[in-house]
């Protein structure tokens, strides 16, 4: 298994990695994943089936692995509340050259990466309950202060914990704890790529220790946090 060598763009609800892609172990994450390369790579599912493709859309919570990597690719992770992520999950069969195996994965032709990233920055929140919008806005600040207490979030939003939990899952598409885990993982990767030690990144993102961070990273990305150590943080994507 090789690590990523390239660049990484991090924004709320969005992670974009560009560079060399190595193999990964079987894993699943709560995000929608889009991967594109000019040369073919091979992905596999939990049933042992594999497919060679140059672009793939992986729905949330879908076990998959990279069987054969590629020298240069772009990989996007979209939080489930992003409007474009919602559209991809709703009807992934709109992609061309669809490959479906065990209802698990979808491979497709070239994807407009710039359009996807632009759309990812515009979550479809206008029709959401104000308490959900308030909670999503408050979470990054709470995360930086330490453990996130759902009761405090509900109090800020003016709702009971049970009501906010129901609304959050229904509208964001992800339970609260799973969403917070994604935010913590994203922050830990940012800290590690910026030069912090694994222990510092773990504590800075709210994980119990580096072993805890390592377990979550393996389950979510199929690789150890050290695989992100050679990525260079950027503010904007290169190219059009």
From TrEMBL:
InterPro entries: AraC_XylS_family_regulators, HTH_AraC
Domain of life: Bacteria
Record-linked Pfam families: HTH_18
Keywords of the record: DNA-binding, Transcription, Transcription regulation
Domain HTH araC/xylS-type, chain residue ranges per copy: 133-231
GO MF assignments: DNA-binding transcription factor activity; sequence-specific DNA binding
Protein name (database record): AraC family transcriptional regulator
Lineage: Bacteria, Bacillati, Actinomycetota, Actinomycetes, Mycobacteriales
């Amino acid at each position: 298994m090789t690590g990523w060598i390239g660049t990484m763009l991090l924004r709320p609800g969005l992670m974009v990695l560009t560079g060399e892609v190595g193999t990964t172990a079987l894993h699943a994450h709560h995000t929608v994943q889009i991967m594109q390369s000019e040369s073919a790579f091979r992905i596999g599912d939990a049933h042992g089936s594999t497919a060679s493709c140059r672009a793939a859309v992986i729905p949330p919570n879908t076990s998959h692995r990279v069987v054969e990597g590629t020298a240069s690719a772009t990989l996007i992770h979209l939080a489930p509340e992003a409007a474009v992520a919602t559209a991809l999950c709703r009807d992934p069969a709109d992609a061309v050259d669809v490959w479906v195996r065990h209802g698990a994965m979808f491979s497709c032709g070239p994807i407009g990466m710039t359009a996807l990233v632009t759309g990812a920055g515009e979550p479809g929140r206008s029709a959401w309950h104000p308490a959900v919008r308030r909670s999503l806005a408050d979470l990054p600040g709470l995360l930086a202060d330490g453990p996130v207490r759902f009761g405090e979030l509900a109090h800020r939003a003016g709702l009971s914990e049970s009501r906010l939990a129901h609304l959050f899952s229904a509208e964001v598409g992800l339970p609260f704890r799973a969403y917070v885990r994604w935010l913590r993982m994203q922050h830990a990767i940012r800290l590690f790529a910026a030069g912090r030690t694994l222990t510092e990144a773990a504590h800075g993102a709210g994980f119990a220790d580096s072993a805890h961070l390592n377990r979550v990273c393996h389950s979510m990305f199929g690789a150890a946090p050290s695989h992100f150590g050679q990525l260079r943080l950027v503010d904007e994507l290169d190219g059009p």
